[in-house]
Specification:
The complex is a heterodimer. Chain A has five helices and five strands. By secondary structure, chain A is α+β, with helices and mostly antiparallel strands. Chain A starts with a strand and ends in a 10-residue tail after the last helix. Chain B has a five-stranded antiparallel β-sheet with strand order 4-5-10-6-7. Chain B has a four-stranded antiparallel β-sheet with strand order 11-12-13-14, with helices on both faces. A three-stranded parallel β-sheet of chain B has the order 1-3-2, covered by helices on one side. Classes of the chains: A alpha+beta, B alpha+beta. Bound molecules: flavin-adenine dinucleotide and FE2/S2 (inorganic) cluster (2 copies).
């Protein structure tokens, strides 16, 4: 099958590639661009481990073709920390509040939470839970994930915050 | 089980005319790609293997929400997320946003479109029942022209609709329900993000606390979304007294034929289907002003 030329901005970098139309965005990111942060958890659009930000929307990259992302702005977990390695407030929040155990769901959770906080900078607990409903975690029971997102929301808006997990 | 779709040629037309021409050229071998949130999973499991995918995501004619007179016109490529952001839609026909929020999860709603939801033909989709309640109509365009068909005439069975090869759904026309109408969409699901075990939508109007007009439709309780006309007729002229409600629920249950599946047995799903109708009726009546 003829390959198609695609160009996208991934984590601030312009990348051009030739892909088969049937290549899923997750495979393009992981296999062609070596960005293995987004994970494949289910491959059936249920778990959200493959979540990346595409043109300001959280998407499950296992359910988008790379050709659909032609011309898109993509952010993966690799693009969250500052270039000097300083963690993003969400990454710091997950660390401080013990928002992860095995860490498999974390790249998707953080990228999704990032978009959520862009849309709702000071979400209620209910809004956080509803907002991450497309991301499954088999380890934490979500409690500390919610706290991690609250930590980041507080930090980003300059409000006083709880220092660490109980 | 393969999770890589079969190979296909990809087209991303920039206009509706270009898209319909591509569909006419490739006929049965072509499929419209909207948000991809039903079609891509089906392709990954090889339940669908179109040779040509016509991605209509770049066609501005299919976008946007307008009101002309008493009709809302919602472009087929309006995503669930965009629909939820529309103040105008939420005010004119709040059942749309209420239902949209019960569909899938945030990621799927950023991509999934209203057009894809109603054109898909999966009885598990939630919007078809809402369109039956609102008496919406679908605009279908092909190289030979445009026709409009009522949602009430569109659904034929599982993945069987009146959409013909070569046609694109371009917009949904929704008559604005009367001010003060009551509405509800009640959906029982195993977990957030799941398709309905059973669901029911209601749009009604009242006068002096009595129901003057009513439409009831059910989702995932038959091979397609269906209008419960006898149940609706039973409640007209009443204030939903217990015997009336029982009669309506029994009438609605009599047209349900859900399969036994992972969501429950036929008996269970029919039973809770009746409860969804009851809740939707009560909630819609409580919300109605008139
Ligand atoms: C995890 C998950 C949970 C979900 N839960 C729900 C739920 O609870 N309720 C629910 O209703 N849906 C649910 N869905 C389905 C979701 O809402 C889909 O987005 C929707 O069914 C299809 O819309 P789409 O834009 O993604 O269409 P696509 O997947 O692109 O297309 C679906 C079908 O419709 C056809 N089509 C699409 N647009 C047009 C058009 N304009 N003209 C002609 N044909 C067209 C396509 O050719 C294809 O056959 C879920 C999906 C997932 C992955
Ligand atoms: S791998 Fe994409 S949703 Fe699970
Ligand atoms: S930390 Fe293990 S799946 Fe979430």
């Amino acid at each position: 099958m003829a390959k198609t030329h695609v160009k996208m901005n991934v984590n601030g970098r312009e990348v051009e590639s030739l892909v088969e139309p049937r290549t899923l965005l997750i495979h393009h990111l992981r296999e062609n661009l070596n960005l293995t942060g987004p994970h494949i958890g289910c491959d059936t659009t249920h778990c959200g481990a493959c979540t990346v930000d595409m043109n300001g929307k959280s998407v499950k990259s296992c359910t988008v073709f790379a050709v659909q992302a032609d011309g898109a702005m993509i952010t993966t977990i690799e693009g969250m920390a500052a270039p000097d390695g300083t963690l993003h407030a969400l990454q710091e929040g997950f660390r401080m509040m013990h928002g992860l155990q095995c860490g498999f769901c974390t790249p998707g959770m953080i990228v999704r939470a990032h978009r959520l906080l862009q849309e709702i900078p000071n979400p209620t607990e209910e809004e956080i839970r509803f907002g991450i409903a497309g991301n499954l975690c088999r380890c934490t029971g979500y409690q500390n994930i919610v706290k991690a997102i609250q930590y980041a929301a507080a930090k980003l808006s300059g409000a006083p915050m709880q220092e660490a997990a109980e | 089980m393969p999770v890589i779709p079969a190979p296909f040629s990809y087209h991303r037309p920039k206009s509706l005319a270009e898209a319909t021409a591509l569909l006419a050229e490739h006929n049965d071998e072509a499929r419209v790609l909207a948000g991809g949130q039903s079609l891509i999973p089906m392709m990954k499991f090889r339940l669908a293997a179109p040779e040509h995918l016509v991605d209509v995501g770049n066609i501005s004619e299919l976008k946007g929400i307008q009101r002309t007179g008493n009709t809302l016109i919602v472009g087929a490529m309006t995503t669930q997320h965009e629909l939820q952001q529309s103040q105008m839609l939420s005010e004119a026909a709040p059942i749309l946003k209420e239902t949209s929020l019960l569909i899938a999860d945030p990621q799927v709603r950023y991509m999934g479109t209203i057009g894809g939801n109603v054109a898909n033909g999966d009885p598990g989709n939630d919007m078809p029942a809402v369109m039956l309640c609102l008496d919406a109509a679908y605009r279908l365009t092909s190289v030979t022209g445009t026709r409009t068909i009522k949602a009430r005439d569109f659904y034929e069975g599982t993945y069987a609709t009146a959409l013909k090869t070569g046609e694109i759904l371009t917009a949904i026309e929704i008559p604005v329900p009367p001010a003060g109408h009551g509405h509800a969409y009640e959906k029982l699901k195993r977990k957030i993000g799941d398709y309905a075990t059973a669901a029911a939508g209601v749009v009604l109007t009242t006068r002096g606390g009595r129901i003057t007009t009513c439409a009831i439709a059910i989702s995932n309780l038959a091979d397609k979304a269906i209008l419960a006309t006898d149940a609706a007729a039973a409640v007209i002229g009443t204030a939903l007294e217990k015997p009336t409600l029982d009669k309506a629920i029994a009438a609605a249950r009599s047209i349900m034929s859900p399969a036994t599946d992972t969501r429950g047995t036929t008996e269970y799903r029919t039973s809770v289907g009746g409860i969804m109708v009851e809740r939707a009726l009560k909630c819609a009546l409580a919300r109605a002003k008139g």
